[in-house]
Amino acid sequence: MRTWTCLAGLLALLLGLMPCPVSAAPSAYHLSKVVMLTRHGVAAPADDNQLPRITGKAWPQWPVGPGQISPRGAQLLTAQWASLRALYLQADLLPAQKTESRVFVRADNTPRSRGTAEALLRGLTPGTLPAYAVVNLDPDPLFEPVQAGLAIFDPAETALAILDHINGDFSQFWESLGEPMSLLDQLAGPLSAEACNSINLPGGCRLSDMVPTISIMDMGRRVEIRGGLGLGSTLVDLLVQEYAQWPQQGAAWGQANAAALRKLLPIRSEIFNALHRTPLIAGIYGGPLLRDMALALYSQHADPRLNEAKCAVFVGNDNNLAAIGALLGIDWQASGFPPNALPPGTILAMELWEGPGNDSEVRFRVFMQSLDFMHAPLSVTTASGYQTAPESYGPALLEAHVTLDGQKDGPVMSRELFEQRVRGALEGRGLPRITFLPEMVSPQAPAPSLPVQP
Questions:
Q1: How far is CA 258 from the centre of its chain?
Q2: Within 13 A of 185's CA, how many CA atoms are on the CB side?
Q3: CB of 288 within 8 A of CB of 145?
Q4: 178: buried, middle or exposed (CB in 10 Å: 19+, 13-18, 0-12)?
Q5: Strand pairing partners for 347?
Q6: Would the N or C end of the chain have less CB density within 10 A of its end CB?
Q7: How far is residue 441's CA from residue 130's CA, in Å, rounded to a whole number?
Q8: DSSP code of 57?
Q9: Separation of alpha carbons 28 and 354, rounded Å
Q10: What is the pLDDT of residues 407-452, one digit of tens each?
Q11: What is the mean pLDDT of residues 180-195?
């Protein structure tokens, strides 16, 4: 891949305008801006026939079309972001009145991302008609540069990079997930004859019978771990969303409660760690987006709306989150989840803290919803007009423990180190600069007014 000299030079120029940090007492710092990246909330499967074809079993009928946020998923997001609003109100970052004047949301152009943008804004800027920005392109090159045709993966180079990232032993990687895969076999049962025959296995095969492979498909535009691990990763993500959608029943045909899902979650997490945290893949899926987020954080973006906002939110995908985490060198773990988990509604926040003179630093936080909250009945209506769950079900906003470069100290970067990480994410990727300015869109009607319970 050719070196992206023009963009790297521009970023160095833009970020280089800021002086290096000088030491100052932490108490002298104040929060001046936050830029966040989140993935969609609870949504119907993009392919509603995929899982029945694999398992041979009927799946629940979602109340919305394929790939769309469900009404319950939207309510869960609104409750989560209302809690986040309270956090940043307390930090004096956002005003209690006319909050929308300090918020800007840039969403991927997919139904589930658009629905997520709408729902989160109802919590972040209550009482308003939530407008957000999208580029009228499908796929959006900022969030999906490979599918948009801006880059391709060389099969040999990519496969070797993934193997190197998992210490060169794919068999050991497979074996390390044997216990959760065994549980998934029990829940899913024998697979359909169609699924087994497609890989030359006899009918009644199990997920763990399907040998995993690293596959680069669609002429270098798609990278996957296929076989039982790949299908298992997809299945676990869908089971979590099923569990969140129907609070009156367990997932996996009523067999899986929160405890079972916690045992399954490492399958999804480890697949994403292996794929999207591989430096080669992370640079392509996360480099351009990290650049935009960095320039927005320092109010030097080409889009003035990102510069003016005190709270800027990018609504992307789980592969974007994994990639940017890897590029920055941050890891996280929330209670009840495996390392670097990415359940629906995960939020990665970059906070700009400014001190005396021109000193500043970037602090990283990661939020998600607890499984208990995701499964809880939304039976409490707040004074702001959104529904949430009783506090006994756990927090709507669960904060993860974040580490930087594997160190136990707080996840804080000096301005100099942050600039270095951003430049490193851009160098040598061969991706063109993305200059599309998004247009503002609004829902057709305001959120329904909900009665306040006494």
A1: 21
A2: 15
A3: yes
A4: exposed
A5: 38, 367
A6: C
A7: 9
A8: S
A9: 8
A10: 877 899 999 999 999 999 988 776 777 777 899 998 754 444 333 3
A11: 94
- Whole-angstrom Cα distance, residue 129 to residue 447? 7
Per-residue tokens: 236: 């676990």
Tokens 């973006």 belong to 301
Q: Is the model more confident about 278 or about 149?
A: 278
Tokens at residue 102, please? 């300090």
**Beta partners for 381?**
387
Residue-wise pLDDT for 383-406, tens only, equals: 788 889 998 898 899 999 999 999
Predicted local confidence at residue 213, as pLDDT: 93
CA dist 231 and 209 (Å) reads 12
Judge contact between 344 and 41, C-beta under 8 A: yes
Residue 18 predicted with pLDDT over 50? no
pTM of the model as a whole: 0.91
Q: Are strands 347-354 and 103-107 parallel, antiparallel or unpaired?
A: unpaired
C-alpha to C-alpha distances, 436 to 136, 137, 140, 293, 394, nearest whole angstrom = 9, 10, 10, 15, 41
Asked whether 287 and 5 are in contact (CB, 8 A), the reply is no
- In degrees and rounded to multiples of 5, residue 138 shows phi and psi of -135, 110
Q: How confident is the model at residue 301 (pLDDT cuts 50, 70, 90)?
A: very high
Q: Tell me how crowded residue 111 is: count the other CB atoms within 10 A of its CB.
A: 17
DSSP of 319-351, one letter per residue?
HHHHHHHHHHTEEEE-TTS-TT---TT-EEEEE
Scanning the structure block, which residue is given the tokens 């800007």?
104
Please give the structure tokens belonging to residue 152. Answer: 């391709």
CA dihedral over 53, 56, 57, 58, signed as positive or negative: positive
Structure tokens at 368: 């998600």
